[in-house]
Specification:
With about 350 residues, this protein is α+β, with helices and mostly antiparallel strands. The chain contains twelve helices and ten strands.
């Protein structure tokens, strides 16, 4: 065995002994690198004759090709081994049953909102939607709640870095009452010709469900919550209509004809007189307890005037309720925060 055959054999042994691609590259440098054995042999040809260079160079090239072939074979072997390890670690048992993605469903509060809209829709109420970032005028002043009014402390809200033309900051609306004024303005504009002619304008009958925000958080309150305001305004709408409408709504919503309602005197700056609405179940786990579900009252003349209407001619009622609380009562949930924690196990119960 000549010198070149020995060199090829040593290279094959060195390549076979390495266990990682990095070690293989180090072994390659010993034979094919700039200072490797093949490079040294090529440099040693300088002192040979022309004929000797031809024969010697051809032999060295054959040895070099053999070493490169061994290097390539070992490189592929290491890659195959690494792939096998990876495939084994990431292997799938195709005999196992597939994972079925469960179908989604409506959030329980969304179900309540849809139910509210459906019930009031049968009574002829429109549904209004509007901005959640509101001006001070729409959120407070137009609702008979001017600056420095003590009632504003009852509705501490969040403000944003945006100011209206009057210099007051915009806020995340603390209630959906601003939509009553916005809807009324659109309604008046639509029927302005009738109003100017002294004719009767079609009644305003609307609910405004949506998200609202206040600085409040406990088991029955959340900084973000839902509210549904209602407004019925016309020339002959009385407090009696409020009692009939809301009683019918509650009995339909809770599917209980023996549900009892109580209108308890209260104060809201945008209604006068005002009343809290309590309900009492006659059967079930909540039987006998009075539960507050809404605020209501006859629309204050100042609010009617801010809607662009004559309070001497137009009268009506408004109410505001919390769909989140109605959802808690309907499904027997005692902590409002569970609705917004995003726990799929909890929410899946209502699908």
């Amino acid at each position: 065995m000549n010198e070149l055959d020995t060199l090829v054999e040593r290279a094959q042994e060195a390549f076979a002994a390495v266990a990682t691609p990095a070690d293989l590259e180090n072994a390659k440098a010993q034979f094919l690198g700039k200072s490797g054995r093949i490079t040294e042999l090529m440099k040693g040809m300088a002192a040979l004759s022309v004929d000797e260079k031809k024969s010697r160079g051809a032999a060295i090239n054959v040895a070099k090709q053999a070493i490169e072939a061994a290097l390539g074979a070992r490189r592929q072997a290491l890659a195959d081994a690494e792939l096998a390890i990876q495939l084994k670690s990431e292997s799938l048992d195709v005999t196992l049953p597939g994972r079925v993605r469960a179908g989604g469903g409506l959030h329980p509060v969304s179900r309540t909102l849809e139910r509210i809209e459906q019930i009031f829709g049968t009574m002829g109420f429109d549904v209004a939607d509007g901005p959640e970032i509101e001006s001070d005028w729409h959120s407070f002043t137009s609702l008979n709640n001017p600056p420095n009014h003590p009632a504003r402390s009852m509705q501490d809200t969040f403000y944003v870095d945006l100011q209206g033309e009057d210099g007051t900051p915009y806020n995340l609306r603390p209630h959906t009452s601003p939509m009553q004024v916005r809807y009324a303005h659109q309604h008046v504009k639509k029927h302005q010709a009738l109003i100017d002619a002294g004719q009767s304008m079609p009644e305003i009958r609307v609910i405004a469900p949506g998200r609202t925000y206040r600085v409040d958080s406990d088991a029955t309150h959340s900084p973000m919550f839902h509210q549904c305001e209602g407004l019925w305004l016309g020339e002959n709408v009385s407090f009696k209509d409020l009692k009939v409408v809301f009683t019918d709504f509650c009995r339909t919503f809770f599917e209980s004809d023996d549900l009892v309602l109580r209108f308890r005197p209260s104060f809201f700056p945008f209604t006068e007189p005002s009343a809290e609405v309590d309900i009492q179940f006659q059967s079930g786990p909540l039987a006998g307890r009075w539960l507050e579900v809404a605020g209501s009252g006859q629309v204050h003349p100042n609010v009617v005037r801010n809607m662009g209407l004559d309070p001497e001619r137009y009268i009506g009622f408004a109410f505001g309720m919390g769909p989140d609380r109605l959802t808690m009562l309907r499904y027997g949930v005692n902590d409002l925060r569970q609705f917004f924690d995003g726990d799929i196990r909890f929410l899946r119960q209502f699908q």
